[in-house]
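Researcher: I've been going back and forth with a colleague about how CUB and Sushi multiple domains 2 might be arranged in three dimensions. Neither of us has a model we trust, so I'd like an independent prediction. The organism is Anguilla anguilla, in case that matters for your notes. Sequence below.
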Amino acid sequence: MRGIGKRRFTGPNLPSPIISSKNWLRLHFTSDGNHKLRGFSAQYQVKKMSELKSRGVKMLPSKDNHQKISVLSQMGVAQGHNMCPDPGIPERGKRKGSDFRRGSTVHFSCDEGYELQGSKSITCLRVTDSYVGWSDDRPICRAPMCGGQLRGPSGIITSPNFPVQYDNNANCTWIITTADPSKVIKLTFEDFDLERGYDTLTVGDGASIGDQKTVFHVLSGTSTPDLVVSTSNQMWLNFKTDDTSGSLGFKVSYEEIDQGSCGDPGIPAYGKREGSGFRHGDRLHFECLPAFELVGKKNITCQKNNQWSAKKPGCVFSCFFNFTTPSGILLSPNYPQEYGNNMHCVWLIITKPESRINLAFNDLSMEKQFDFLSVKDGGKAESPILGTFSGDVLPSPITTSAHVARLEFLTDHTNTDRGFNITFTSKNKAAFM
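Model: Here is an independent structure prediction for CUB and Sushi multiple domains 2. You can compare it with whatever you and your colleague have in mind.
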């Protein structure tokens, strides 16, 4: 049987409705082993050709058509009324128009430094007797530049196509020069995701591109320093990719700062910092809030090469902790990033004897059937189990009958996920009756 033509979709851009050219349609979904994302959801319905009012809607080409299958993007169409769903606004772009009724048109544009990929305007049209939909996908705003000469005082550099996957066999070089020759450059990483070990971003001091003596970092994967500060009024970046699979790329910002400074490294989430000086010789001290453990160095010093002696530490939720406060939050370790393998964590929430504990689940996402969270009515391992949870279905709130709650978190040796976020409160038991 001869095919009816192909449409291929990838990335976050929502497709417009599609109408087949024959009475069959094949969907083929392929993924690699690098990343996990939310995926897709689509609706389909079968209609006679005479019922399809496809004016302005993309159709798969064919000469013979009697009965069509229309594949309707769940977020791109609406049923039962004459208003299309909100098409959204492109990241790093703008939208003109807020009327989504049938026949209305909205217009898109991009911020300075980005170019529009897709339709500048889309119109809400009737697709079938039951559905209305947009005439085209929402466009995206992509970074067109692969390298270039940049001048301060500040700006943004992104990989080509960002936030969509970058191209293979890229070789891009940027040179940043301060507007004020007496200043130096601070580079801050906002997004970073490269194919580990194959695609790299090299950051160097000055303008001698490729000189190994000037290289600060050769970066790959998802790990980056907090920031990089040059020793002169110039800095270079070189982005190289191979001929295989890529990733989402990077976004970095740069700005001029005074010489003799390492820049502000920031404060870790769920942490605090002592010290406010970022000049040569200044020292910063970091601590974490209760129930969190420090990962990294407690103290870092600004060195004469404008770099901190170590990366800013992080604060990770402890795998073992006894809570004695009347309320608080309880997180899986490393939340909202992925928790680790082979974990066995135990937390106790201890309140006054006349109190009871309420647990409200704000988020839950664990490897189904292999990673578990158990809530027990009491502080012992053999206390009655109030619930055991896995997967991503958010549980209803739980109230204990004891004044102590025990939570146990177990993971296996394979896949991990985001974990959980729980708010707990304690009140006199009469308040729960």
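Researcher: What would you highlight for our discussion?
Model: I'd start with this: The radius of gyration is 27 Å. After that, consider the following. Confidence is low (pLDDT under 50) at residues 51-75.
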